[in-house]
Amino acid sequence: MNIVILGPPGVGKGTYAGFLSDKYNIPKIGVGDLFRRAIKDETELGKKIKGYVSSGDLVPDEIVIELVKNRLQEDDCKGGFLLDGYPRTVAQAEAMGKFKKIDVALNFVAPDEVIMSRIGGRRTCSKCGAIYHIKNVPPKVEGVCDRCGGSLIQRSDEKPQVIKNRLVVYREKTKPVVDYIRKKGSLADVDAHYDIEEIDKIISQCEKHLEALS
Ligand SMILES: [Zn+2]
Question: Tell me: the pLDDT tens digits for 43-79?
């Protein structure tokens, strides 16, 4: 099963992909991790990527495509994979059609308010880095870390206005990709508005889509 994972920041893609990776015994591949590994290993692609990343530029399609293509040709991907963070552009989606068939793209959707409250409720300990959530994982004393007594802060990229912007940018950039894959007939929407205690409801929708393939 060749699976692509789509969805906005904060929708929980990493968590769902982890579940599915364990259940179906296929590797979970994050493009961000591929970047970091290539840079660390100082491969030819890694050196190029480092140049773009350190100057704050987007990594060009042809480099991302080559990196992903190489990774998907490794042995552990023979039985399938879960790909997160690709395709981000229509050019990447078109290129993928030439080297691997996408069986299904799971498109996780949730209303902005849900994502805002998930990310916007996060608090991070300024001393030890422990992560809390004002509603789901509250500290015993408001604003104070249970573990070390450090003060809890809201990260600047998790403030409401910043999250809103990230969602707008995501939608603008990804809409053409989602439309492209939908037209090809391999898009499956997954309603991901449920709370973490109800994650089963999200996973079971994925399983239904995946079982429809076999
Ligand atoms: Zn702490």
Answer: 999 999 999 988 888 899 999 999 999 999 999 999 9
Q: Which residue has the tokens 């987007």?
A: 58
Catalytic, 155? Answer yes
pTM of the predicted model, to two decimals? 0.86
Task: List the catalytic residue out of 28, 48, 71, 88.
Answer: 88
pLDDT digits (tens, 9 = 90+) for 21-41: 999 999 999 998 999 999 999
Give which of 130, 136, 134, 135 is closest to 151, Cα–Cα: 130
Q: How many residues does the chain have?
A: 214
Catalytic site residue from 155, 159, 173, 175:
155
Choice among 36, 69, 166, 182 that is catalytic: 166
- Taking the alpha carbons at both ends of the chain, their separation in whole angstroms is 9
Answer whether 65's CB lies under 8 Å from 92's CB.
yes
Give the pair of three-digit tokens for residue 123. Answer: 């608090």
| Among 176, 17, 4, 213, residue whose Cα is nearest residue 96 | 4
CA 45 to chain centre: 22
Catalytic residue list contains 166 = yes
Query: Which residue ranges form the domains of the chain, and what is each CATH number?
Result: 2-111+168-211 (3.40.50.300)
